[in-house]
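User: Show me an example of a complex going from sequences to structure tokens.

Assistant: Sure. Here are the input components:
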Amino acid sequence: MVRVHIEFSGGLELLFGNQKEHDVDVPVQDGQQELTAGQLIAWARDNMLRERPELFVKGSSVRPGILVLINEADWELSGATESLIGDGDHVVFISTLHGG
Amino acid sequence: MKCKSARAVVLVRQREPLCQACLEAGVSGKVRALKSNKLLLPGDQVVLAFSGGFSSQTLLRNILAMRKDASTPRKERGKIEFGLSVVHINEATAHGLSAAAAEAHGRAVVAAAQRCGAGGPAAAVRVVPLSDVFLWLDGLGGQPGPQPGSQQQQQPRGALASAGESCHGAEATAAAASAAAAAVAVAVGSRPGAEERPAPDVEASTAPGDAAAATGAGREETTGAGEAEARAAREARLQALLQSVPDPTGREDLVRTLRTRLLAAVAGGLGAAKVLRGDTATVLAARIISDTAKGRGYSLPGGIQLLDARGAARGEPAVLQPMREVTLKEAVFFCRLRGLEAVQLPYSRAAGERRSVNALAASFVDSLQANLPSTIFTILRTAAALKPFPFNSSEALAPSAAPAAADAAASTAVTARVEPAASAAADADAGRSSGAQQPGNGSGASECQGLAGRGDGGTAVVSCCVLCRAPLTRREREAIAAAAAARSARQLADQSAAAEERGLGSGRASPGEPGPGADGRCGSPSLASAAATGAGVEQSSSLAVAGDEAEQYEDELEAPFCISCRSQILFTPEQSAGTSTLVGALALSGSVGFAGIARSKTLAVLPAAFR
């Protein structure tokens, strides 16, 4: 199990019970210490999402327009869906659906 | 990596990693282009349009950083002294929120602005509900500026006061902001039965007495009932107006238009000549796509430049978009890395409801950008190839001495852009007097010039859509002019036929003339040519047959709206023989007889200034 602190912002929290911060334990394959971001997204879709999955995921990744930060850095710097998330990491999903 | 020293935190553009400092430097450098382009000058009064989102907050932070602190006489290098007001147009109710939720949203936005550094008397924050558009732009004759002696003038002042104006007093920042929120709360929250909507009161009478008695944040007592009732009536009217638009895209566009015009009106009321908007490159790219899809190619270049001063001749504030080269991702990271949270309205679309063209365009750009990071800038570069309008250049900012001369100059400048014959204005007068009889498209064009050339008493001529302010294409103007000519010819014919029986109409009916409810397509060539020639007499006879409904319809044809507003927001042509909305609308504006009968429910509920 990998403990991850997940935060939702930019309106995404409404899909997750209107709660911005979540501390979750995500199961991983035997022997692994980390999970990929793609796996985390799939797990979040299956276990945390209350409604409207199409607003969060598209295929195996997040919907285009949703920014992902891992420990306050752009996940594209670490491989996007292939980024590795370890115990205690902080992942943020920000929706830019409405611009600003 | 730009500075090659600090840790990279974000990937922008074409896979360029940046650290926080370099990211911030890049963003602020683009906003500072205002200064180098001389678009922000010492002594300017500026309104910043604040939505509470990431780009608004980024813009606000950077603008405040550019500002010289007026309280110290010490010179600060690189900083400008200008007046700033932060204005939030609260459109929460237009997205379906209750009054209480809308008011909470307004408070959250004020808090966000304060976190960015605004809120003091030098950077006051105001929340204005979208329904106030009826206060400002109703019955003021389209002139949102101060009109001496006008009773209506009292209302906007009252609205500003109740929105928490703190210009005149040096009040404490927290007190002013909370008093502002409280004033908004009292006015909005005291409306009974916030959940259910009262029957739309189209004839909402906001007596000047109510607003004049409406108290502001500075005063302790509130009028309560009078002001709350007026506000509730405006809210109901706003809902009725939005419900009258059947199309989700049209509804969104109408909200956007109302927001833009209300911003301009509020800015004018505050004495500001410039409005700063936080539209990012991402949002502009999506708008380019959606505007193209809506057939707005002609007016497109006017709205994507750094400066848009199309209303300057009328005294309206100029619009600046300093964030147009900053992507939304950069703005989000800018805020995130500084710990600034955005305030967003919740998703307002029910699952299964049709998405608007705007949402589709945004999602299209996002999807493409995910795999191809050059997407946004490719779209912007392509649109930059379109020639901007004269009102996009900084010369348009210079105030004109004589309003009449400026209007004529501005209108001929716009029309001269597409019609090289600027001297057609002279021909137009001759053309107009015998306009009803002249065949051919030439008379249509010279009619337009006629309308354009004559600034009747200095009033602005119809060169822009009254609703969205997009410049009208030549085709649109011709159609409007033809409808106007037809109407005046009809009036002439009516007068001359007054003594005789109306048999003139039935005897002279043109072949293939359709009755009401006929196919709306441009399929009837005889009618097409008849309309194009502006042969008013024949048309008037047809009209006499169809009666009053057609006359109202002709009035709508004459109304100065662009095709996009007409088809999406205003008119609901009957779906006859599978006519699509856009084709039907084109047929309507081509003055081709009767495409069914257009019933414009929206037109009646629009604020007077838009008609």
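The lines above are the inputs; the final block is the predicted structure for all two components together. Confidence is low (pLDDT under 50) at residues 140-221, 400-460, 505-546, 575-597 of chain B.
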